[in-house]
Amino acid sequence: MSTLTKTLAVLLSVSAIFLCGAVFIYVSKTNDVKADYDQLKSDYKVLQDSKNVAVSSLNEQKMQMQQQIEKLKDRVSELNQQKEQAMLDLKNAQNKAVKWQDRVNSLSGIVKDFEQTISEMHASLESTRSMLQQEQGKTLKLSNMLNEKTTALDEHIVMVQSLKAEKRRLKEQMAAMEKMLEEKEKSPEQAQAVTVVEDKAKALEPRSYAPVTGLVSEVGERLVSVSVGSSDGVKKGMKLHITRGESFVCDIEITDVDVEKSAGVIKLKKSAPKVGDTVSTEL
After folding, report:
1. 23-32 pLDDT, tens digit each
2. pLDDT (tens digit, 9 = 90+) per residue, 73-83?
3. Is residue 11 part of a domain?
4. Element (H, E) at 140
5. Distance between CA atoms of 254 and 15, rounded to whole angstroms?
6. Rounded to whole angstroms, how far apart are CA atoms 158 and 252?
7. Using CA atoms, how far apart are residues 215 and 225, in angstroms rounded to an integer?
8. pTM value?
9. How far is Cα 175 from Cα 192, in angstroms, rounded to an integer?
10. CATH assignment of the domain containing 261
11. Does residue 1 sit in helix, strand or coil?
12. How many independent structural domains does the chain possess?
């Protein structure tokens, strides 16, 4: 073969080899581009989905924000109304405060006058209390004097009753003596008259062996007269019990004794005695 032919053959071989390499490189690059395209397409789809989700979330957030803005606007409007009402209430309260302050200022004078009146009333009360204490002292003295007068009156009443009893006793003695004299003038009957007088004397002797029982005949403020006397065994200082049925009424201490009646001062009083109540030395 000639040199030119060999050279051409070498060039063709080299060209073929270069062409094969170029084709291989192209094919390999084409596969890489396709893979990159698929990857880019997949990434784009993911990004598009993310965008849609983000846009949807953003729209939802925008709606929520818009709703919150509307609520805030309503709240601001409500607060403004409350503020206006509060300002109006404050103004009314200030007006009322001014009125109340005027009333307080007007009442302060009344309070001062009232305090002065109370002070005067307190002074009058102290004066009245002092007068009351003085009157109480006088009343106590009068009460003591009344008690003394009452005691003296009781003593005088007892003395009067005693004198009356003594008067009755003397009258009875005089009558008995006159009767005895009349009987003595009748000599045949003298012995019999003496016997009768002795029997009467024995009848008047106290019968201490039997309980004394009688009735209330008179009732005074503090004195009680009973229908038993020395002939029944009653003595001065003796204590008698007054009852009404089964109920205890009071006790009396005998201060004056007559033959057939006696009188005493009320002691240990449970209720007021009455005429006809039972009196006895035993309950």
Report:
1. 667 666 666 6
2. 988 989 999 98
3. no
4. helix 3-185
5. 181
6. 13
7. 9
8. 0.31
9. 18
10. 2.40.10.340
11. coil
12. 1
